[in-house]
Amino acid sequence: MGVGGTLEYISELIGSGGSHSYGKRKKKKQFQTVELKVRMDCDGCVLKVKNSLSSLKGVKSVEINKKQQKVTVSGYAEASKVLKKAKSTGKKAEIWPYVPYNLVAQPYIAQAYDKKAPPGYVRKMDPYVTTGTMAVYNDDPSYTSMFSDDNPNACSIM
């Protein structure tokens, strides 16, 4: 064992509390925020969901907006476990399906527009999903340079 190996061995012993875990490092969970849409009708539902999610290991805070039916969970818990715990309360729950409408290219097409969405939000969409009509891209440079500011003779109409 060289000097570098010895230092690594000692740091492993100190860092792991003396247990030998050569090559087995426990991956630390990332702090994340999980947003859910949970169907809640009354204050009792809100309390039930909040208590259930707060008891989950790694959860640091639970914020609930009853009007939007939105639950925001912050902590070191995985999104799938948070969703499973929310569903275990007997409430209909899903990952928050909405984004602000200004982040969507076409917010009022049938797939994005949702009348149940909170004000200012539309349904999250895959950007590569087509809506039945496709835009045709013409790669002909004559159309783009016809009214160019760089070419003074480009506009023949004037």
What report would you give on this structure?
Helix content is 25%, strand content 18%. The chain has 158 residues and is an alpha+beta fold. The protein has helices at residues 3-15, 43-54, 79-87, 141-145; strands at 32-38, 59-65, 70-75, 93-95, 98-100, 121-123. The chain has a domain at 32-95: Alpha-Beta Plaits (2-Layer Sandwich), CATH 3.30.70.100. It contains four helices and six strands. The longest helix has 13 residues, at 3-15. The protein is flat, with a radius of gyration of 27 Å. Strands 2-3-1-4 form a four-stranded antiparallel β-sheet, covered by helices on one side.
Write a concise synopsis of the structure shown.
The chain has helices at residues 3-15, 43-54, 79-87, 141-145, and strands at residues 32-38, 59-65, 70-75, 93-95, 98-100, 121-123.
